[in-house]
Amino acid sequence: MALKKNGFIPSSAPEELKKVLVAVASVWGDTIEDMEEFHVFPLKGAMTNEVFQINWPTNHGDLHQKVLVRVYGKGVEVFFNRDDEIRTFECMSELGQGPRLLGRFSDGRIEEFIHARTLSVADLRDPEISSLIAAKLREFNNLDMPGPKNVLLWERLRTWLSQAKRFCSPSTAKEFGLDGLEEEISILEKELTQGYQEIGFCHNDLQYGNIMMDEETRVITLIDYEYASYNPVAYDLANHFCEMAANYHSETPHILDYSIYPDVELV
């Protein structure tokens, strides 16, 4: 399913989505009689979904309501379990930790539009913002989420490696050293599971595009929980530090620049 960009919801959009949007508007006291009252704007930066801001005029004057529509990406099931992600999002919504869930349709969902800005790659190196992220992450890691609290890191790495080998040609597998990664994962698992490890609910994808900040209140909100699970808290911190070497708005978003990996002074 695709939405018309910078325009109206097309007639080809699923009736299910239209009905859910109309229902959400109705809850807020707005009556929508024509689909052209919904204005669609694409949002950049999403990695595994298509994300749109949808506005419509209210029944209370010139103000507009805003929601975020997330259309699930195809083929992402090799990276995470969508059902688990939806359950996590619903729980986070109930806990007031992220945007509220407003509605669901078969290919996606409608979320509360957060009036805050998405951070940039430079923001992660700002000491004040970094301290706010640290405090929020501590709160996130302490959440008591329902379901099993088993560490998923090692199983997930092996699953991704298996999928990578299945899709890669022999030459590509050799180029990226895939044949040696199973042993490396086993070595890391053995070394990093010795002794005490604090286990908490981890975001596991703490890149700048998944962190939002209200400019007035300086409140930090973590969004997008596709990869969230119980893991060693140290892994969440390490993942965030690695993301500080990434720029997803560059011409090479898949290449990390470890020359800008945070040093001891920064962290």
UniProtKB/TrEMBL annotation:
<dbReference type="GO" id="GO:0006646">
    <property type="term" value="P:phosphatidylethanolamine biosynthetic process"/>
</dbReference>
<dbReference type="GO" id="GO:0005737">
    <property type="term" value="C:cytoplasm"/>
</dbReference>
<dbReference type="GO" id="GO:0004305">
    <property type="term" value="F:ethanolamine kinase activity"/>
</dbReference>
<dbReference type="GO" id="GO:0004103">
    <property type="term" value="F:choline kinase activity"/>
</dbReference>
<dbReference type="InterPro" id="IPR011009">
    <property type="entry name" value="Kinase-like_dom_sf"/>
</dbReference>
<protein>
    <recommendedName>
        <fullName>Choline kinase N-terminal domain-containing protein</fullName>
    </recommendedName>
</protein>
<dbReference type="Pfam" id="PF01633">
    <property type="entry name" value="Choline_kinase"/>
</dbReference>
<comment type="similarity">
    <text>Belongs to the choline/ethanolamine kinase family.</text>
</comment>
